[in-house]
Design goal:
5-stranded parallel sheet, about 10% strand
């Protein structure tokens, strides 16, 4: 950015030379052309560097994104994150919105571009929560693999549930602002049910969590 600013200042100063006495118009025009080319080249380099730094150089920031309904699975999601982050095989961060989300408007971008795998913690209300389904839709459309952990209170919905999805989903007006329509949410609900899954029992102990981590990182 400093280079761009410097090129702009030089271009401005060179333009003042047009008003000087005994100036060489050909030389000044060549300088102006060179500075303009340098300015646009610098801008292109800044943009390329930004894209490289964000998406390529460091790779995706998060190994896992834990998608969950806080009221129904908040404690389990917290425990899962603890076990994942202490595994030697998980060398990148694990995203959980209560810990890592600073800007709500960037949530779906994080799923699409900064996540390796989305973990859907399937509790009773997950499919009814618009933001959870927005995360799942972002993963599906962004080509991010989804792995389901089925909690004991989760019931697989039937076809009529999805056909009448708008009546089951809580207020989805916020998703509409991101261009996520009810049809896209329906498709994501169907897609979710075909993703790899593992069920957990009511009693969760250390061995259960270790087995889950092993399944997730396989």
């Amino acid at each position: 950015l400093d280079v761009v600013n410097m090129c702009f200042v030089c271009l401005l100063l060179t333009s003042f030379a047009l008003y000087a006495v005994n100036q060489d118009p050909l030389l000044i025009s060549r300088l102006c052309v060179a500075l303009v080319v340098g300015l646009f080249t610098s801008l292109a380099c800044v943009v390329a560097h930004s894209i490289h730094g964000r998406f390529l150089r460091a790779g995706k920031e998060y190994r896992f994104f834990v998608c969950h309904h806080k009221a129904g699975a908040g404690n389990f999601a917290r425990l899962l994150k603890m076990y994942l982050t202490t595994s030697p095989q998980v060398t990148k961060k694990v995203f959980m919105d209560s810990d890592d989300l600073c800007d709500l408007s960037a949530l779906f971008e994080i799923v699409s571009f900064q996540t390796d795998v989305l973990i859907a913690v399937c509790s009773k209300e997950l499919l009814n929560r618009p933001w959870c389904m927005g995360e799942i839709t972002s993963a599906r459309e962004g080509g991010v693999p989804i792995m389901n952990i089925l909690l004991p209170d989760f019931a697989r919905p039937d076809a009529s549930f999805i056909d009448e999805y708008a009546t089951h989903l809580a207020d989805s007006s916020a998703l509409a602002q991101h261009g996520i329509t009810i049809d896209r949410l329906k498709e994501s609900a169907r897609f979710l049910l075909d993703c790899p899954e593992v069920a957990v029992e009511s009693k969760v102990d250390a061995e259960t969590m270790k087995d889950l981590v092993a399944w997730l990182i396989r």
